[in-house]
Inverse folding.
């Protein structure tokens, strides 16, 4: 689409006069070269405005002008940043008609102009949130649902903010140096290994328990379920003290274990014990729901077809519940690797990564502990993402098309 | 032959009480009754998925009360699609043979015999989730009979199947019963279905047998108007028995004649 040449000419002359006036205005508001570039940029803006007037609703033109004016006031008049203004108006006119990009643009302006020192860590959550919100909005969700989502996303964004900020502080070079430290490496290996072992133990006891709970009715069931939840409720330090009292070197069991060479307190095994304790509930809840979602008549059919109860569990119940069970294992693993309070009391040696970050903070201060925290965060995130990806490869839920 | 002797089973407030129920070999037994009459529980007792508190289950000549379900050689087809969603159609049909560690060659043989006789050629390569209700039930049927069961138990197998596919399945079931002499026990509350298939009837009510016997016996000597209705007969074919207060019509699943004052929930 090309406008008529008369209107091109008129616009060019009009804008040229306007910019000349700005340039020759006493006090030189804008420098010479910038005025030229601004003139060119505004020609482009005018062209975009013309297209919006041609294709959009009548109100769009007004909105476009208001947005331009806001940018003008904010960036040029208040902040006085000419180059940024030129960049922004070009972006603004380009993405105005594409809602998805326009939202990201607004997030960009808000982050880099208003929340300047925290630009990166505000831009990422805002634009991610907008992309999610926009998808839901486009799919035709009700206004109430959109509002609910928006409220929730704001909360999530606030959660993400400190982590993003932490990530943005240290240069890759510092991090590389920290990763190279042998004590950091050892602590991360201890963390990964102990939480993986804890997860295996949790799975060994937890999956049978979750299955049994999903398939049986008995009196006192609520009590059993409350006991399962107990480790979530109990403060970490209390867990540490409780374990120390029963398994520590001063206790009869602890003494016996020490003598037979199986002592746990202050050893690797102790870390695993504490992690099993805190991670246990997270598998049960999720796995139980997953098993409840497998219709029992599938198991009945399997039995009548000649499969034993054990085979039925392995071939039917467990595969069909595997996504949920795996989700529970991921949660357990995450809870295990994030444990700190019980470890510092009960098994502070060998140091896991959270314990190392804490001791580093006590001895050397925040700037030394920070890169370790970041490395730990990245390692955990990476494993978490990999596990979630693995989960998506498991067989889907059992629902047939009638129910879905 | 399916023979239930002196069965007692309580399930919360509900209790199943079957003194003697005998379905002779080669019959197509249909069990009708309102919801909550204990029909499905009865099937599960026969299949061994629950064990009775008292009494015994006899299949053929063998008392199977203590036998685990996987060794009873009972075929079971449920109402809703009970196909294993994570297996293919072939995987579903071969599931039982693999569980029994049948040699590969014999699996192939039995598989093709069953799929041919049920005319399943068209669906073998389709994912289980894309099957229609009728097709899914046919596959479920194939999965059960490929095991060569002594009896076939059907729990409202046609209720989720649309009307057009129903006729086909009814014919398939009839053929299985007639040509292969397979003893069936079919639970339903659809009288049309019952009349189309049954050569032997039982009417269940509140966990008890109202009446049972061969088709002619039952239809010519209906116990009460409600039994007549369950079997699709006019209420004029019979009279209200003595002591009947028609509480069954309230949907309580109880019968005053059968239980007398025993039933206190009404």
């Amino acid at each position: 689409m090309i406008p008529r040449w008369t209107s091109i000419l008129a616009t060019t002359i009009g804008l040229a006069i306007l910019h000349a006036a700005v340039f020759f205005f006493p006090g030189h508001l804008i420098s010479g070269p910038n005025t030229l570039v601004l003139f060119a940029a505004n020609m482009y803006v005018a062209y975009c405005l013309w297209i919006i007037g041609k294709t959009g609703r009548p109100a769009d033109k007004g909105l476009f002008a208001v947005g331009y004016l806001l940018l003008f006031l904010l960036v040029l008049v208040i902040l006085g940043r000419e180059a940024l203004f030129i960049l922004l108006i070009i972006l603004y006119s380009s993405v105005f008609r594409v809602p998805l990009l326009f939202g990201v643009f607004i997030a960009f302006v808000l982050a880099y102009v208003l929340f300047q020192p925290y630009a990166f860590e505000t831009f990422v959550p805002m634009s991610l949130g907008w992309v999610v919100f926009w998808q839901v909005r486009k799919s035709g969700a009700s206004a109430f649902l959109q509002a609910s989502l928006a409220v929730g996303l704001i909360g999530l964004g606030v959660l993400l903010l400190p982590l993003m900020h932490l990530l943005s502080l240290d240069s890759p070079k510092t991090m590389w140096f920290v990763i190279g430290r042998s004590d950091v490496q050892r602590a991360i290996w201890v963390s990964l290994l102990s939480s993986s072992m804890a997860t295996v133990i949790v799975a060994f006891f937890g999956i049978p328990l979750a299955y049994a709970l999903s398939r049986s009715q008995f009196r006192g069931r609520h009590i059993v379920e409350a006991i399962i939840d107990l480790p979530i409720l109990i403060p970490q330090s209390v867990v540490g003290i409780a374990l120390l009292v029963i398994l520590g070197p001063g206790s009869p069991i602890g003494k016996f274990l020490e003598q037979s060479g199986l002592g746990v307190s202050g050893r690797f095994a102790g870390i695993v014990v504490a992690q099993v304790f805190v991670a246990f509930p997270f598998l049960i809840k999720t796995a139980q729901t997953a098993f409840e979602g497998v219709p029992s008549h599938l198991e009945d059919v399997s039995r009548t077809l000649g499969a034993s109860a054990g085979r039925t569990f392995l071939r039917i119940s467990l595969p069909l519940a595997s996504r949920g069970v795996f989700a529970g294992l991921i949660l357990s693993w995450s809870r295990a690797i994030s444990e700190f309070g019980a470890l510092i009391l009960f098994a502070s040696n060998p140091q896991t990564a959270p314990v190392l970050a804490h001791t580093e903070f006590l001895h050397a201060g925040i700037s030394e502990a920070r890169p370790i925290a970041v490395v730990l965060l990245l390692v955990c995130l990476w494993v978490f993402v990999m596990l979630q990806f693995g989960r998506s490869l498991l067989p889907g839920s059992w629902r047939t098309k009638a129910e879905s | 032959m399916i023979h239930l002797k002196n069965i007692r089973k309580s399930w919360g407030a509900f209790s199943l009480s079957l003194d003697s129920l005998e379905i002779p070999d080669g019959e197509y037994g249909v069990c009708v009754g309102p919801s909550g009459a204990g029909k499905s529980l009865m099937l599960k007792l026969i299949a061994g998925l629950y064990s009775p508190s008292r009494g015994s289950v006899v299949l053929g000549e063998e008392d199977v009360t203590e036998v685990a379900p996987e060794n009873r050689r009972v075929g079971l087809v449920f109402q809703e699609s009970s196909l294993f969603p994570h297996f293919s159609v072939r995987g579903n049909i071969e599931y039982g043979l693999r569980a029994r560690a049948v040699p590969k060659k014999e699996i192939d043989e039995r598989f093709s015999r069953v799929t041919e006789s049920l005319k399943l050629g068209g669906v073998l390569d389709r994912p289980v989730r894309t099957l229609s209700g009728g097709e899914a039930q046919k596959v479920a049927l194939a999965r059960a009979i490929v095991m060569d069961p002594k009896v076939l138990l059907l729990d409202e197998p046609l209720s989720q199947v649309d009307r057009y596919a129903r006729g086909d399945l009814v014919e398939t079931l009839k053929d299985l019963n007639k040509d292969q002499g397979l003893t069936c026990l079919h639970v339903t509350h659809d009288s049309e279905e019952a009349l189309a298939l049954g050569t032997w009837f039982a009417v269940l009510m509140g966990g008890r047998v109202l009446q049972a016997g061969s088709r002619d016996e039952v239809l010519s000597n209906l116990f009460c108007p409600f039994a007549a209705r369950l079997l699709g007969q006019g209420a004029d074919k019979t009279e209200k028995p003595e002591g009947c207060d028609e509480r069954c019509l309230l949907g309580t699943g109880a019968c005053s004649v059968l239980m007398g004052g025993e039933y206190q929930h009404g």
